[in-house]
Amino acid sequence: MAGATTNGRRSNGSGLDREKSPRRSSHQPSRSRSRHGNGDAHHDDAAAHNGRHAHHAHATLPRTRHDILHGGHGGHSVLHHGHREAPRKGGLRGKIPVRREGESGRTGIHPLHFFKIIWRSTSWLSRAVNVLWPVVPAAIVCHFVLPDHHLLNFILAYIGMVPAANLVGFAGQELARKMPHMLGVLTETTFASVTEIILFGVLLREDRFILIQGAILGSILATMLLCLGVCFFAAGMRRDEASFDEAISEAGSGLLLTAGIGLAVPSIFERSVSGTAGLDPKVLEQSVLNISHAVAILLLISYLVFVWFQTKTHDGIFNAIFEEDEARDHDREKDIMKDKLTLTECILALLISIALVSLLAIALVVEIEPLIEEHGVTDPFMGLILVPLVEKAAEHLTAIDEAWDNQMNFALSHCLGSTLQTALLTGPLIVIVAWGLGKPLSLDFQIFDMAMLILSIIAVGNFLRDQKSNYLEGFLLIILYVAIAVAAFYFPNVHAVVGVEGGGSSAGGGGH
């Protein structure tokens, strides 16, 4: 991608592409081409340097697809900060060039640049995580050389997952910078969930159904409460209030509630019917499994419709919102000027990091059973708290950095987007894969888990309602997550209650 001439762009001789418009000078920060038209570059760039706040943009951003395609005020296209332009003839859909934020100015692979950029990462927080890289080879070596040292192997594999997952997230972010805003956010969130997908796959191979169920709900809670809470707290440390757009919060909170209720359907059905006179337990077990499969398919369809909504029918609204976030980024100029990975280097980094995550996931899962049996760690605490924290490490670091830089719409999209991917994509997908493999993995969760999930969704929805946040709201979300973690720590071990973990409703994690 770097160094290649793209549609509507030409090389400036230094390896970076530049728009052909004579009004844009090389020192001005460019934006990705808007679907509203070319716009007034001078006013847009001046607004970016002045650091206009999002509440000013809310009055001028397009709110419907009609506004985007036909103009929201008197038949004119709505641009940022109230500037207008007559609609372009011949349609607005065309080829979108690589965004300047993602241009590396290079092609191929340059080893020194490659390792330098990876070490620098996206923020000081991610850079601090990179200090843990020596643990990665140590964890892999100990897994093969010291197989009987279960606690040591678990700790090393657990710590090693953090920098490896961070590299997955960073490479996905570098790739996303080259794409249009909404597609980039979706791509970045998807790659950040690779660690979760790999862990679920390894757990499924080992028939660890209870841990998978706990990890599904734990991932949702960790991102929705802990990550969002830290984002609110970090943003509140630099300003009295942080604002975000209602299009992000309303779509996210509505889908969260829908996903939560959908995931609860099999569990509520099982508790309602269980104990009915003359009902064969095996028939009930199969019914719960069938309902779980149906719910998983419906949730997957919901996710596909959500993606279509964001990337096709309403993508102009979200792109405009994210452009406003870029304009108020405290580190915008610094991010534009810093070195970036080429497309080839992004792919290479993803391949390396995904391979390392897979090895570490295998080493981690192997040690879970001895840790539960020998050191008193319960299934609920392992599945609901420990495993999800390492799954979502990359996503959490990215979102926190964005909130610190006043990019709350980006931060919220990563928190809610990652949560929705687990609830609507990853969780249902692993149930369907288990179905295809003949494994009885259901969505029959424990009542404690479902109650905490639904109550947490309601709490987050209330915090998102006013499109503003502060450090107090962030602190309260973190406290709520810690309270759930304490309860999970003291929750009785499912092995002791159920007796076995393989097969049937017990394996489904009901504990009833």
Overview of this protein structure:
There is one protein chain. The chain has 512 residues and is mainly alpha-helical. The protein has helices spanning 41-50, 54-57, 65-70, 111-120, 124-129, 135-145, 150-176, 181-192, 194-205, 209-238, 246-273, 281-313, 315-327, 332-337, 343-366, 368-375, 379-391, 393-404, 408-436, 447-464, 471-490, 494-498, 504-507, and strands at residues 9-11, 17-19, 77-78, 84-85, 242-243, 468-469. A two-stranded antiparallel ribbon has the order 1-2. Strands 3-4 form a two-stranded antiparallel sheet. Strands 5-6 form a two-stranded antiparallel sheet. β1 (9-11) and β2 (17-19) form a beta hairpin. α6 packs across α7 (150-176), α7 packs antiparallel against α8 (181-192) and α12 packs across α19 (408-436). The protein is globular. It starts with 8 loop residues before the first strand and ends in a 5-residue tail after the last helix. Residues 1-96 and 496-512 have low confidence and may be disordered. Its main location: membrane. This is Ca2+:H+ antiporter.
List the helices and strands and how they pair.
Blueprint: E1 9-11, E2 17-19, H1 41-50, H2 54-57, H3 65-70, E3 77-78, E4 84-85, H4 111-120, H5 124-129, H6 135-145, H7 150-176, H8 181-192, H9 194-205, H10 209-238, E5 242-243, H11 246-273, H12 281-313, H13 315-327, H14 332-337, H15 343-366, H16 368-375, H17 379-391, H18 393-404, H19 408-436, H20 447-464, E6 468-469, H21 471-490, H22 494-498, H23 504-507
Antiparallel strand pairs: 1-2, 3-4, 5-6
Helix pairs in contact: 6-7, 6-15, 7-8, 7-15, 7-18, 8-19, 9-10, 9-15, 9-19, 10-17, 10-18, 10-19, 10-20, 10-21, 11-12, 11-19, 11-20, 12-19, 17-21, 18-19, 20-21
